[in-house]
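From: lab user (bench 3)
To: helpdesk
Subject: output format question, protein + adenosine-5'-diphosphate

Hello, I'm new to running complex predictions and I'm not sure whether the block I got back is the full result or only part of it. Here's what I submitted:
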Amino acid sequence: MLNIGLISKAPPINLTEIWTDFLREIKSNVTQMTFNTWFLPIKPLEISNSNIKVQLPSQFFWEWIDEHYKNLISKTIQNVLGEQISLTYIISEDAELIEPDKEIIPQIIEKTKAIPPKQESNAFLNPRYTFDNFIKGENNQLARAAATAISENPGGTSFNPLFLYGGVGLGKTHLMQAIGNKILENYSDKRIIYLPSDIFTVQFVESIKSDKVNEFSSFYRSMDVLIIDDIQFLIGKEKTQDLFFHIFNTLHQARKQIVLSSDKPPKDLKGLDERLISRFQWGLSADIQSPDLETRIAILKKKSEDYGLLVSDEILEYIASSITSNIRELEGCLIKLLANSSLNSKDINLDLAKRTVKEIATDRKINVSIDNITKTVCSALSIDENKLRDKTRKKEIVLARQLAMFFSKELTKSSLKTIGLHFGGRDHSTVIHSCNSIEKMQQEDSSIKTLVENLRSQIELACS
Ligand code: ADP
Ligand code: MG
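Helpdesk reply: Thanks, we reran it on our side. This is the complete output you should expect:
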């Protein structure tokens, strides 16, 4: 396609027909979402003996297509037209403002190649994540219900934006992807994009470098559904936040659906632009908590079925009661169990399950340090870290200190003595006492239990 070839016979002349053939063939080679996002917006303008001219919404758009679909387009044009033909495109974000023609030839493509998106949009949308395989539990009730509602009616509910938050490995990404997949199924004409916020930042930075911020921005503003995961990674990225603010406003005003996720509720996103925080609260914020035992067992059952594993209820219950705060880890345990069983040609039995759980706990401890536990606990409770080493017996400082000791014992391999030394040279019996009192408080006070679970997720997130 990209070479101007010698034309030996007259090409078919009906542009619409040719274009329909072209799209039909493309459609059978890409997913529905790719098709809607990247091919439907291409407008055929005219065809001559040697050339098809099309209009694209933006330079950014073209370069994404070029990077990902050059071969496919080239092959398809050849198939449809039966010979080599060149493709000319014009860029127009606004049909009335048509820029001069730009001929696409390989050299130019090489030069303009430095375009951000490393992957196409749906490369991030994984069909594996659906509502069907998302287990309902009290921990995710509201989030799941709201996610279902907007999938039925994107942009048409008051849940805009839908803001999902919660600790690591609790199902935020799964749910957001399920939303994307479901909308795609319900509304095949919608343009949907899902991506993690750090990728958004990388793309933005690259668009600055290549002087394509406008294209970048108008690309996102042209979406019907914008799903951005882990929005907390925009903290400290003022320029990205600023651009995102404008994209958000445009989409929201046009009643396009926005879905965001974060490890914390909007109001706790310290360091994020206040204007964004207030907008995030316009719609619905729904949290996902750690799952209870029944939900954990149900998830394990479903996952083991999915993997085609035969695991007894006793073993599933054992795993579910040993791994409590993170669904990703539950799943990881199952996979590891499978690996251990096949590597050692052993049946999956309770002993092997116990060994596997132990291994998981060891893996986890490698990454966690007392320092990052202290940091996380203190920042969550807004306490000065130095205070934990002081003698002070102020209630909230005692609680923070006990929590930090409790997690240091649970999540690191440090000895009681080492832990004590970290907190102002206290002895090992103080550490034991702290751990016991956190255990006891959790049993007596459900808000402490929730606090412990949230902190554990945050520590794991900070150390992962
Ligand atoms: P997060 O984005 O909150 O860190 P993920 O969505 O990546 O968490 O979830 C981690 C893993 O746990 C994924 O494999 C996901 O499929 C699984 N998972 C989480 N919640 C559920 C659920 N309710 N039912 C089934 N699987 C779940
Ligand atoms: Mg996630």
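A quick orientation on your result: The beta strands are 43-47, 51-56, 86-91, 102-103, 162-166, 192-196, 225-229, 257-262, 284-288. Let us know if anything else is unclear.
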